[in-house]
Amino acid sequence: MHEWTKDSLLMIGFSLTRQLQRPAHSTLFPLPRSPSKAPPCALPLCPSLSSIAAARHRHYPMASSPIFVGLPTFLLLLLLTTSGLFGQATGAVAPGPKPAPLNLTGILEKGGQYGTFLRLLKETQVGEQIESQLNNSFNGLTIFAPTDNAFNNLKPGTLNSLTTQEQVSLVLYHVLPRYYTLSTFETTSNPVNTQASGSSGVYTVNITSSSNQVNVSTGVNETPVNNNLHLDFPLAVYSVDKVLLPPELFGAKPPASSPPPVVAPEKPNKGSPAADGPSASAEAAPSAASPEGRSAERVLLLWVGLACMGSLL
């Protein structure tokens, strides 16, 4: 649809006003240009032009008035101009400025004591993942930020002993996939999922609240939730005094099962006969041809001889 501008509507209105301000008889009944009086009508019943104009002016005195003719036109043009300008003003309203994207790094740097956590966010590229997720999230995020003292209280070499993937899991273990305030912590149900996961599934934490104090427990350690660094949807950042240690990485591992003992096969005797020979009892008995058999035979004969000699005496 063609959009009428203010200037074009005013020009059209001015032209219509000029046209309508002319006397009515000048258009309907044009008079001759000569100033002489018009000759009387040939027909006696036909009135003259001047008498028609006079009669019209007598019955409708305002019909040929410029004010009477121009006022409706002026009101119409005013209405069109106002509506057109209103429509242009409505369509020309510029959208408000978009909110600046959330900057997790700036929030932690402003806190002043989260250098180690910032370094892990950068090295594992979890920081970029979090900021991208914040700008496209409907549920928001909650982050537990350990202080530098929390990392210093770990055993020496704890972070260096982790693989790159385990470090990613450790950082994501401090991120909850939902925006939580202190009041919503009181009504949440355990266990609470985190952003970390492994072969055993999603890593979880337990959150308890008592006497306006919120605690986070991992099963390995527990820490209170301190002051918030940022609390505005879609991001909530809370400071914690301990590094949350997932049991999947720092829990007690079951001892490795020892292999069953290996039974060595019994070695056969050197002088044993074949498997289809006599029984074991027969194998153990000395034969007559062996030296043991001959010595036993001699002892027996000696006893028999001694017994005979005793009977003769």
From TrEMBL:
Subcellular location, principal: membrane
Keywords: Cell membrane, Glycoprotein, GPI-anchor, Lipoprotein, Membrane, Proteoglycan, Signal, Transmembrane, Transmembrane helix
Localization of this protein: Cell membrane
Membrane topology designation: Lipid-anchor; GPI-anchor
Limits of the FAS1 domain: 101-244
Ranges of Low complexity composition bias in the record: 271-293
Spans traversing the lipid bilayer: 66-86
A single GO BP: plant-type secondary cell wall biogenesis
GO cellular component: plasma membrane; side of membrane
Residue numbers spanned by region Disordered: 254-293
Domain of life according to the entry: Eukaryota
Matches recorded under InterPro entries: FAS1_dom_sf, FAS1_domain, FLA_A
Annotated family: Belongs to the fasciclin-like AGP family.
Primary role: May be a cell surface adhesion protein.
Entry protein name: FAS1 domain-containing protein
Species per Swiss-Prot/TrEMBL record: Musa balbisiana (Banana)
Lineage of the species this protein comes from: Eukaryota, Viridiplantae, Streptophyta, Embryophyta, Tracheophyta
